[in-house]
């Protein structure tokens, strides 16, 4: 394969998933007990990458923007929260079981996959008609007709190969448990399915304590839980995941202007992470949720197609109004500029940290083959943006003698105070470079005999493999400049 030629997509995703495990990014949860489906753990390099993603998002929201403050609300909330938000009544997916294989599927996903097949075969009209029909039936909650449509489309279970389907039922995605020692219904609490409600119920606490004036935003990072029926595609759809959500509170009537601003700002942010423009797109929602008056997804082209990474929604005053009604506590803002009390409108940006992680991993994974046909070599590296890379630099003495390790240790000890750096002296320098490429370290710093003479080191750049010599005393400044979030912020101004 020529340099940078596209790897076939199906094998590409498998390669990325096994790379993530082998090099300490993502492990299946409880693997020694054969794993827990759709739950994952992050390894030494994965946890560093995830921490960097969250810090970048947090700093973008709360430092880069003067009008956004942070919050860290609890996972458990009063059960009435979920009545007010509509999650108890309607946070459902339509499910269907195959009686022969006993496998469970999302009815809408089966139909969407059939529509994708029509599209692939070039029959765009048939594909669109099927999606339209499905949308109408789901909106009318006509689950019998959804089943009939699955049968009419001759959709069979991929495991049993039969169309021996149960009826379609609604399945609520919230996990519940009991608070306290009594297993009574009144003690029932839910694991939050989104972090946003913690922001809504704290609207007045935050606004008053931080003396915020509308328009302003509240940002939060935290775990969310959904009992997904179809849990597939690695960390794309998980049962326990992390969200990074921001609710921007605005004057009624100004929400669509803010919605357009946030939609563009969020797309610019994804591009600033180093994601090529042609791998990102907007997808406007055809069917709006009952509380929204505009909604769009930012989609990334994963090896399995364009899929949602982030949602931007204009949520009207639905949530605050419902909480006001259910709690019977006034949730209003007095706007001195217009001399009026009102319930603010909300524009939400909601991105999954794990999904962003998968996007960055897929985008970073690079296989380059070079050389003559009979003597080809493949180099694999992860081209993470230096500001997000789990390890910023590796300090590598050329040999284990002549005082090179001591000099390397001296440099390492200085740098590790401010950066996540690695010191390694075992194996050949080539093998050590390869290892750093595989975890995406942007810079390798080699210590050689010249270092002892003039205090200069070689910096090897991961993507180009080019090398330059700089003074060891300038390393800290070099890493500060190259690995700083400013590299990303400069593109947002
Ligand atoms: N508060 C709005 C909200 O929760 P959503 O579209 O359901 O909206 C927002 O979720 C984002 O959360 C998605 O764009 C995705 O990145 C992430 N997300 C949702 N469900 C997920 C899951 N099961 N696993 C991983 N990430 C998920």
UniProtKB/TrEMBL annotation:
<feature type="binding site">
    <location>
        <begin position="348"/>
        <end position="352"/>
    </location>
    <ligand>
        <name>substrate</name>
    </ligand>
</feature>
<dbReference type="InterPro" id="IPR006195">
    <property type="entry name" value="aa-tRNA-synth_II"/>
</dbReference>
<dbReference type="Pfam" id="PF00587">
    <property type="entry name" value="tRNA-synt_2b"/>
</dbReference>
<dbReference type="InterPro" id="IPR022961">
    <property type="entry name" value="Gly_tRNA_ligase_bac"/>
</dbReference>
<feature type="binding site">
    <location>
        <position position="194"/>
    </location>
    <ligand>
        <name>substrate</name>
    </ligand>
</feature>
<protein>
    <recommendedName>
        <fullName>Glycine--tRNA ligase</fullName>
        <ecNumber>6.1.1.14</ecNumber>
    </recommendedName>
</protein>
<feature type="binding site">
    <location>
        <position position="106"/>
    </location>
    <ligand>
        <name>substrate</name>
    </ligand>
</feature>
<feature type="binding site">
    <location>
        <begin position="236"/>
        <end position="241"/>
    </location>
    <ligand>
        <name>ATP</name>
    </ligand>
</feature>
<keyword id="KW-0030">Aminoacyl-tRNA synthetase</keyword>
<keyword id="KW-0067">ATP-binding</keyword>
<dbReference type="InterPro" id="IPR033731">
    <property type="entry name" value="GlyRS-like_core"/>
</dbReference>
<comment type="function">
    <text>Catalyzes the attachment of glycine to tRNA(Gly).</text>
</comment>
<dbReference type="InterPro" id="IPR002314">
    <property type="entry name" value="aa-tRNA-synt_IIb"/>
</dbReference>
<feature type="binding site">
    <location>
        <begin position="352"/>
        <end position="355"/>
    </location>
    <ligand>
        <name>ATP</name>
    </ligand>
</feature>
<dbReference type="InterPro" id="IPR045864">
    <property type="entry name" value="aa-tRNA-synth_II/BPL/LPL"/>
</dbReference>
<feature type="binding site">
    <location>
        <begin position="241"/>
        <end position="245"/>
    </location>
    <ligand>
        <name>substrate</name>
    </ligand>
</feature>
<keyword id="KW-0648">Protein biosynthesis</keyword>
<comment type="similarity">
    <text>Belongs to the class-II aminoacyl-tRNA synthetase family.</text>
</comment>
<feature type="domain" description="Aminoacyl-transfer RNA synthetases class-II family profile">
    <location>
        <begin position="130"/>
        <end position="397"/>
    </location>
</feature>
<dbReference type="GO" id="GO:0004820">
    <property type="term" value="F:glycine-tRNA ligase activity"/>
</dbReference>
<comment type="subunit">
    <text>Homodimer.</text>
</comment>
<dbReference type="GO" id="GO:0005737">
    <property type="term" value="C:cytoplasm"/>
</dbReference>
<keyword id="KW-0963">Cytoplasm</keyword>
<feature type="binding site">
    <location>
        <begin position="308"/>
        <end position="309"/>
    </location>
    <ligand>
        <name>ATP</name>
    </ligand>
</feature>
<dbReference type="GO" id="GO:0015966">
    <property type="term" value="P:diadenosine tetraphosphate biosynthetic process"/>
</dbReference>
<keyword id="KW-0436">Ligase</keyword>
<dbReference type="GO" id="GO:0004081">
    <property type="term" value="F:bis(5'-nucleosyl)-tetraphosphatase (asymmetrical) activity"/>
</dbReference>
<dbReference type="Pfam" id="PF03129">
    <property type="entry name" value="HGTP_anticodon"/>
</dbReference>
<dbReference type="InterPro" id="IPR004154">
    <property type="entry name" value="Anticodon-bd"/>
</dbReference>
<dbReference type="GO" id="GO:0070062">
    <property type="term" value="C:extracellular exosome"/>
</dbReference>
<dbReference type="GO" id="GO:0005524">
    <property type="term" value="F:ATP binding"/>
</dbReference>
<keyword id="KW-0547">Nucleotide-binding</keyword>
<dbReference type="InterPro" id="IPR027031">
    <property type="entry name" value="Gly-tRNA_synthase/POLG2"/>
</dbReference>
<dbReference type="InterPro" id="IPR002315">
    <property type="entry name" value="tRNA-synt_gly"/>
</dbReference>
<dbReference type="GO" id="GO:0006426">
    <property type="term" value="P:glycyl-tRNA aminoacylation"/>
</dbReference>
<dbReference type="GO" id="GO:1990742">
    <property type="term" value="C:microvesicle"/>
</dbReference>
<feature type="binding site">
    <location>
        <begin position="226"/>
        <end position="228"/>
    </location>
    <ligand>
        <name>ATP</name>
    </ligand>
</feature>
<dbReference type="InterPro" id="IPR036621">
    <property type="entry name" value="Anticodon-bd_dom_sf"/>
</dbReference>
